[in-house]
Design a protein that fits this description.
The protein has about 160 residues and is an alpha/beta fold. It contains five helices and eight strands. An eight-stranded mixed sheet has the order 3-2-1-4-5-7-6-8.
Amino acid sequence: MLVLASCPVEVVRFTGGWLFDRVMAGWEATVLLAHDSDARPLRILGARTAALAAPVRGMRPQAVVVEAELYASDPRVRRIVKDALEDGAEVKLWGNGWPADLDGGESVQHRLSVAARAFKAQAMAAADVPVESVPVTETFRTGEPPRVRTAADLIPVS
């Protein structure tokens, strides 16, 4: 699984629980960051990190999760996402809106496990994000082909 974000704080706040649950289910997670920053919060969730500027040749992720604002502003990110969609990968975005150049855009939610909520709280504290409570769900926009839309950990938002 590949996560593309501007900084660790955004990943932890919006996808931290889902990321943790996927890692605990056996997924390997790599987070490519646009800005150099402390990766400790992401390591708490079980993810590896690298700079977005680092080459990603040969990487064919089964899932790509992207910060919508980064998709809109960075052509490298758009290329990675479009390549992933062509390969049939699961693609999720978080943040405002669905890019006009992508088809679809359905809202889905992941219900965090109790462990994910606990680890997300620790990751948020490590990122110096105030934590009053960790939400039970995280919401994404999805645009993968219907044949891929079978992820049991994501349900459509009604």
